[in-house]
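Bug #77: duplicate submission created two jobs. Keeping one. Sequence:
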Amino acid sequence: MASNPLLIQELVDEFLSHVSETTDLWACALVCRPWSRAAQRALFRVVKVNRYQRLWTRLETTLRASPHLVPLIHTLILRRSGAIRDQMVESICNIPFTRLEHLCIHSVSTMSLESVVAFQRLLSLPTIRRAVVECYFSEPVLFNSIWVKCSPNIRHLHLRCQQKFSDKALHPVQRHPSTPIILESLRLDHVNNVGDWLNHDLCPFDFSQLTVLSINIHTSAVRWSRMASALGNIKALKFVHSLHDPHEPMVDLSLFPNLLFLSINISDLTRTLETFSTITSSSRIRRIVIHLESTVAIDQLDSKIAGLPMQHLPIVNLEMNPDQYVGYVPLFPQLGAKGLLQRTGPGWFERCMDHTESFG
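Kept job's structure:
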């Protein structure tokens, strides 16, 4: 039996590594026991639970009945709606995950104290390396509480937090945990006044070793006092120049001597051109990704980038679908003539953030 190639575990694992559809993996799991084990590893490596009560119930029931599946879970994505009761959240969070590395918490309903305490348990797991928190908080104490037992091993953080207490100050009340959490990447989306919390001396997160920074609002974040030590280490940077935030400062790229990858969402051309003016001859930037949010004076943008004072001009990727790209190519004659214009699909930077070695 051992000579049967269909039963050699290494070959089975290699074969199933190329199968991605859930229904196909379930079919493979029915072939025989070696196939079942390999298929289970693929099926449960990433577990996504959407906002439906039955899906949460099914996950909880499955893992309680088959605890051998729990160590297979490396990524857990929880999307919570108002229909998901705190008791169900607590039940999922009490499952003893032993190899969970990537945790995503998405909640469209306001976080209660019970759910905050439950999610504390997951964020405290020593195996967690990457955390995404997209939640609504009604009180500063609830936002502070979710980080009380946070694992010091978290290296990648994505925050998208809406507060319903914008008139109240948000500051850490004490440092938790006692060991600073040294981040390698940070992504901030629509975080209201969480900026004050992040820039506070008692914030549990240490930015000094950041290599990847994405700030979809508040470009002033690059001027935070706690961000100063990170600027020389950052290799990949993304930000937005939006007409909706006219008072946000332009970003001085000369402050990032080791920057290799730059991604900009552009609707405010004036600040964008000012930002490109800060690129010096010693710049190491080798790729610029541009997302055009509105009609801008593209000829000025083309001329500005093509005339950068760099020995080797960077590749410029337009972030759009292929049909759009065909129409935009003639609008960048200088970059096109230099062979520097390319296309990339939407979400390029975010995909690379999931594999930070892509920015090496």
